[in-house]
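Why run this: before we spend reagent on co-expression, it is cheaper to look at a predicted model of the complex and decide which construct boundaries make sense. The entries below are exactly what would go into the expression plan.
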Amino acid sequence: MKASRSRAIQGIDQARPDDENPQRSARPASPRARLLLGVCLGLLALSATADGIEVAPPKTTDEAIDLQLAEAAADRHACLRCHAMSTLAYRNPENSDIVGLSLDREALAHSVHGELACIDCHRRSYRRYPHPDRPAPGDLDCIGCHEDEDQNLSRGWVDIDAEFKRSVHAVSDSPEAAGFSCHSCHDPHRFRPAAVGEPIAQIVRNHNEVCLSCHEKLVAPLNTSHDWLPNRDAHWASVRCVDCHTPAAVFANHDILPAEQSEKNCVSCHSSDPQLLARLYQFRSEDDIARRGLLAKAVFNEAYVVGLSKSPALDRLSLIIMGLVVLLLAAHGVGRYLARRANRRA
Amino acid sequence: MNAFAKTLLTPKNARRLLITVAVGLLVLFVLYKVVYPIAFDAYVGKSNAPLTYANSQPISEAELEAMATELSLSSRRAAAEAIVGQNDGAFARRVKVEMLMNTQSFMREHEPTHIKYFRDANILQYEGPKTCLQCHATIKVRHHDGRTSEVDTLDDIVNSVHFKFQSDGGGGFSTYGYDGRQVNAEGSRPIPVGKINRACGIPGSFSWTGWAALVESRPEATHGEVELRSEGCGQCHIGGNYQPATEKMMPIGDVPDVAKEGIDCLICHSTEYDMNQRYVIRDDVGLRWNQDRTMRAALTVGRSTTKNCLNCHQHNMGGDAYLHNEAAQALGDKNQRLLHTGAKRGNPFSPQDDVHAAAGLQCTDCHVPEGHKIPRGRMGVDLVANDLPNVEVSCTTCHTAAPHNRSEHKALLNGHLDRIACETCHIRELQENNVVLRDWVHPTWDAEEGIFTPTDIYRSGEVNKGFTFLWFNGNGTFLANALGNNPNGSTEYDPLMAQLARIDDPEIVAAVREKAIELKKTYPDIDVDAYVEAATDPLSQLTPEQLDKRRRMLDENLRAHMNDGESRIYPFKLFNAMMYEDMGNQGPFGAMILPFDYATYYETGDTTASVKQAIQDPIVQRMYQEPFKLYMMDEFMAYFGVSGGWKTHYPLVDGKLENVEPKWMRQMGSLMINHGIQPVGRDCVECHSPNGILNYRALGYSPERAAELENLDIVENLRPAASFSATDGG
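The model came back. Tokens follow.
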């Protein structure tokens, strides 16, 4: 029920005409959205009877959506009365670390989960204060909600789950990786996938912040781990960690590789057929990616990548010029030799 | 030009030039060092002379040894008793204490350190700073940012707030004039200001007129016999001179060396300092404060402890009448100090009433000194002077951002920190003698002490009576009003027109009325209704034009500073007083207040005579002259919210007060309270209920939000079980 309800709201979201995302809004939303609205209506009736609340049967689908959104908003409001307090925190008695329980109201509103009710993910017992000490097992499992094929994604949740299970985060026996879950990287209260058209540098910064929130030692002044990389800081500013730390051949950016297996081959990116295009530049609009030619690659990539804008025509032209220069030099030499010989004879 | 330079550079002329310049500099130096001080003293009517103290006597070596043995024993005994547990029987405990006391390492650790130094250096007389500076001419100072530096000890102390009452201008000050300018901000012309809206001693910053006074009291017990009593600002300020550090008010000049010799090092540094030596004495030059300069006090010198600070500061925190004010138990061997029965804050620091004092914390644990400069933190409304404006003094330094650890509701309690200051919950009440409204104009005869004292119209230590809650971002006004605003950017929150300008509580109004009726018996001219109105609604003393101007100034000049930074709700002690004001220098926030002469006031109760006496002091006369107007008073008045500059019309003409009226200041001052911290904070329902102690609407919350905060289901849910009290001291 949780899953379908949240999907229902996603559907509603897509149906809204004032959506900011041009690609999404361009998509024909009507048949699927209508189906989802039906589901949502049914659910509403179900939940009303289940809770024993008398609700007048909604007359139109719009009203139903509004009602459901309002219900979720009321639920969020109730939780945020405390959880929006920026200092809501306690000190973990085991290590004295401060554990923050506060949510950023704005970030939540703009996240993918921004229109859900809190209790969609958190058990109903969280509705009242005081809350249980810890969630029940499986309570906050993303796959529990996101199990089905979701056409928003280039590949299924099941694939992501499989990738994750292969990743160093899942298989490592380091104590720091104990209990690693989706939430370790993706804060469900602020998670928002990068949208096509956002500035690449911003996307890179946001992505890398997630990694560096744990791997903060990597950016410490005396750390030498990435010293092999030429122009290290330039790379860090314009390439995502996952671009090198996931298998280069397949698109599986949850399969984080251990350091020794990560990409170290410069040509993977610095060539005219770069994998970077397939990964990082997926955030460019399709039009931009489709552009061909020297200027298009150099200008529309937002960052000039050595090798990426390689042009065969230019290569050929250079070769011809070089050949011509050699020929010219040779002709000049021969000319002088001949002239000198003629002079001597005279 | 060339020819001129050539003549000038001939050896003979060059020598002449050199000599002229040298003589010129010498003359300037002599003028500055010799003539200027004499001229300055004549100008401000003050005099200096070498200071002598009767108790600064040489002792013999045998006496030193006897004293050393006694002091060593008592200090070791106190230390041992603190360590040996109470569990044993009395006899076993005594044996253990004595064993410990006589253990070699313990003796080394707990004997007053200076016994050995004085013995080795053969110091047999304590002569004030001179003696200390023999070894401590310079000290190493560790700064808050980790720097260390070496400073001249005497300079360091002479330029501290404790000595000169002001600090050098520039940066960090949080006080704003009603004209919207930050007081003594960098780039402005600094003027000498220290405290603001003084609730103690003499109203107004007139430490000159009330530095030291001998009052002839006629207590009941002596049946008309006159008993001399001591009074004045000098009892707490460390200079031992005939007046405060007047020279430091000026851009040039320094306190004379003879005055520096009067600095009382031991009141802050000696554990055996005898407050019974602190009383006013009269010599050929005038009145000044005596101090303890005995060898006994000198032998126990060391780092300042809480006891040292409280010699003076319990007076402004717990109050003179506070039960555990130790200094107030030692009023003087003669000319005993007068106690102020109404408390300035009623917010004591003592093991009985403060959790930190009970835990044995020293004042300097939070107020970490850098040399002789002591930080007061970045927040404060009633003090412009700040020796270390950039040094933080705050609860979170020790308690972290998540201070509650024991309670089941710790996270929720910690959640409040963003909006609520710790003090709001952890100071539950003030001492009941906390003064809110004080009438200086209609004194009351105190038969027991045999003096006339100002009449406290209203005293209370209760919440929303003696103190209330205001948004505060660390900024204050020139008359000590806390500035801040609801983070929602409210335009409704308006403390200078509401919380600080009007008393609506019917209980308080009734109490004021009762007191007014009582006063009318002595002062038949009092119109009770008018009196109550002026005391509880001080804005009623303003004309409509003045009110308009006030409204405009608040919106245009102060609103922006209210919205600065991050505000939290803090408790503030409220205070207002009726005093004589110079109506020629009036603005929408009040007029220049005039000082009282202590002796006249206490002895006769004739308040106008007392004012006349006080304003004849040369320094007040100078204040009403052009040089002072240009030097500081114009600027002062601008900060005060009075436009058009300082009017130099001296209010005493032919022995009559002219254009002087008794008035209540046009709003209450709000004094920060930060001590008297209770381990158990307030209960949720004290704030989160319809009649809670926080008036959410007045604090700028929307009606919907206010209703929500008053009726929280969370609190409701918890109530039947156990009351959701903040039983957590962290």
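Chain B has 28 helices and 18 strands. The mean pLDDT of chain B is 90. Bring this page to Monday's planning discussion.
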